[in-house]
Specification:
The chain is mainly α and 394 residues long. 53% of the residues lie in helices and 1% in strands. It has one domain. Helix 3 (45-71) packs antiparallel against helix 4, helix 9 (184-195) packs across helix 11 (219-246) and helix 10 packs across helix 11. The longest helix has 28 residues, at 219-246. It is globular. The relative contact order is 0.18.
Length: 394
């Protein structure tokens, strides 16, 4: 570990329209043949159905089991099934929605958009605000003038109260320094404000300040966000009314609430992506972290454990990331286990309490700055269909 000087000082940032004109990041990307990259960038409806259809299918199966156990008053089985349902559904927001948002899962755009809006509907996720934010995140990863989707330094918190909510029902967690609307109550509140066309009243919260900047920069995406938030409110209000009038209150639990139950998995995995790493680096190997996962978690996490590889070549569909990782393995730092990543993050965070400018400077092979990849190649620079239509950051 080594200290990186004066990288994490928060200040007033210039408008994003100005940053786009002046900030040009010359990214280092691990070399790979153009032909092989083109092969790995190919989208497949079959693989898309396996990934997206499989994830949604498991959710539907667990939802049916939860309703069945509720109807039979088999309460122990009901609680276990509901927890498992939540664990699966928590990966809809920010994971399934993330990759579907890139538009790289299916060859068919209609299938991709259909699944994207389905998982966003269940998980209260806003694909329009997120699309604008995530475009900046990929174009300017952890360069804080232009990417504040994750405002480093992040805190890898293991607070007992937070862990209790993450292991059960996440009601009260507050949005903070990463792109999130927090727990269920905060999510409903912020979604309702957007549905009314209101801008953020909580710019003291870093993630909400970032949204305010995005809304200034991408007004069309904000209009779409307002419409989508209204759809969310109408849909989930309808589910609640049906639940009350029918006496089947379990319907709200399996449709409107599951992505806020058992959030522990998405928290433990998602936090590893950038936490504790340096900012303002042009090397994805230093600002992004890959981890090792077993096949089951890798599936529900949509293969985002290969996160450094995803940032290097964001046009590669998630189901091809393991093959991409194998191709460039010799030029990459070895991926850590989840436990190893959390140990590294916690050690970095503890040191940051006395030295706020400190961050983990990941050692990389001595091949840095020898990339043969053309900076003007569309396949290399592709981030899929993520950017808002008509946006200057495409």
């Amino acid at each position: 570990m080594s200290a990186i000087t004066s990288q994490n000082v928060e200040h007033s940032y210039p408008p994003l329209s100005e940053v786009r004109k002046t900030l040009r990041v010359k990214w280092y990307r691990s070399p790979i043949s153009h032909e092989r990259l083109r092969e790995l960038s190919a989208r497949s409806n079959t693989k898309g159905w396996i990934q997206a259809g499989g994830h949604v299918g498991v959710y539907l199966l667990l939802a049916a089991l939860t309703i069945l156990f509720w109807s039979q008053q088999a309460w122990i089985a009901f609680v276990i099934s509901l927890w498992a349902l939540g664990f699966v559904a928590t990966f809809f927001k920010g994971t399934a929605a993330h990759e579907l948002g890139h538009g790289t899962v299916f060859k068919s755009r209609a299938l991709n958009n259909g699944f994207l809006h389905a998982v966003c509907l269940i998980s209260w996720w806003d694909p329009y605000d997120y699309g604008a934010s995530h475009t900046y995140h990929h174009r300017y990863t952890t360069h804080l003038h232009a990417d504040r989707e994750n405002i480093l330094p992040l805190s890898p918190s293991l607070s007992p109260l937070l862990l209790l909510q993450l292991c059960t029902l996440n009601l009260f967690s507050k949005p903070n320094r990463n792109f999130s609307k927090g727990g269920f109550l905060w999510n409903v509140y912020l979604t309702a404000r957007t549905a009314l066309g209101e801008r953020s009243a909580h710019t003291d919260i870093p993630s909400q300040e970032w949204l305010e900047k995005l809304h200034d920069d991408q007004p069309q995406a904000f209009k779409q966000s307002v419409r989508w938030s209204r759809i969310l409110i109408v849909f989930h209000t309808g589910v609640l009314l049906v639940s009350i009038l029918s006496g089947w209150w379990v319907l709200s639990l399996v449709i409107s609430v599951p992505s806020f139950i058992a959030n522990i998995g998405s928290y433990l995995l998602g936090t590893t992506q950038h936490c504790g790493l340096i900012t303002n680096s042009s090397d994805f190997r230093k600002n992004t972290r890959s981890i090792k996962l077993n096949p089951v978690l890798r599936f529900f996490y949509w293969h985002m454990n290969w996160h450094t590889e995803h940032h290097m070549y964001a046009g590669v569909p998630c189901y091809n990331l393991k093959a991409l990782a194998n191709e460039i393995e010799a030029d990459m730092p070895p991926p850590k286990s989840v436990l190893g990543a959390w140990k590294e993050m916690r050690e970095t965070w503890l040191r940051q309490q006395s030295d706020p400018d400190y961050a983990m400077d990941t050692p990389v092979p001595e091949t840095a700055n020898t990339s043969v990849m053309s900076a003007d190649d569309d396949i290399i620079n592709s981030i899929g269909d993520l950017a808002p239509k008509g946006s200057e950051i495409r």
